[in-house]
Write a structure and sequence with these properties.
Elements lengths: L2 H24 L38 E3 L10 E6 L2 H30 L15 H6 L6 H26 L2 E6 L3 E7 L4 E7 L2
Antiparallel strand pairs: 1-3, 2-3, 4-5
Helix pairs in contact: 2-4
Length: 199
């Protein structure tokens, strides 16, 4: 028998003896199942991966919005926001638009009457908003007409003041955070976050 054959036989015997010894050690011990770590007792549910607890901040109890007094502390759960005065904007725009429409109609009728020589009164000033009715007072000798033009001019002035004040003087409010949403804001010159809400 050659030396190579003897060595090969010795290797085979060593592998077989080692496998038999390993089988004797595992004899009677449960084989770990997939999902179970080594040494974890069998028959129990496999351990679940740990998930950190989710903490949800409580929703503040209170009105959806409150008036803000300058310098006072902001309560928990509220954000200070600027709100356009919608009532003044809508009221001023409607008042100015309706009354100016009446003035424009009066000016158009007056121009038609002048073309047919039924009157010599110049009513072109009524095309000018706000100042036009006051300018028209000088063009009439009727006391009723002067009073009417004065009130028309006064109404247009009031509507314009309401509109301008509503657009340029927003109210400062405290709005509950769950009524707001924060969205990213991107522009050519700056980026950041913008708070949005429904008022």
């Amino acid at each position: 028998m050659s030396t190579i054959t003897v060595r090969l036989a010795a290797v085979v015997v060593t592998v077989l003896v080692g496998s038999s010894a390993r089988a004797d050690e595992l004899d009677g011990q449960p084989v770990p199942q997939p999902g179970y770590p080594q040494g974890y007792p069998q028959g129990y549910p496999p351990p679940q991966p740990y998930a950190p607890p989710v903490y949800q901040q409580p929703i503040p109890q209170g009105p959806e919005e409150m008036n803000y007094v300058e310098g006072s502390p902001i309560p928990y759960g509220y954000t200070r926001v600027e709100k356009t005065r919608k009532g003044l904007v809508i009221g001023g725009a409607v008042t100015l638009g309706v009354v100016y429409g009446f003035s424009a109609a009066f000016a158009a009728i007056g121009e038609d009457l002048r073309r047919t020589n039924e009157t010599r009164t110049d009513t072109s000033a009524m095309w000018i908003p706000i100042a036009g009715p006051f300018m028209q007072i000088k063009e009439t000798t009727s006391s009723t007409g002067k009073l009417l033009f004065f009130h028309v001019g006064l109404a247009q002035t009031a509507g314009a003041l309401m509109l301008v004040y509503g657009l340029t003087s927003p109210r400062t409010l405290l709005v509950r955070n769950d009524q707001l949403s924060v969205v990213p804001m991107l522009s050519k010159d700056a980026s950041g976050m913008m708070v949005m809400g429904t008022f």
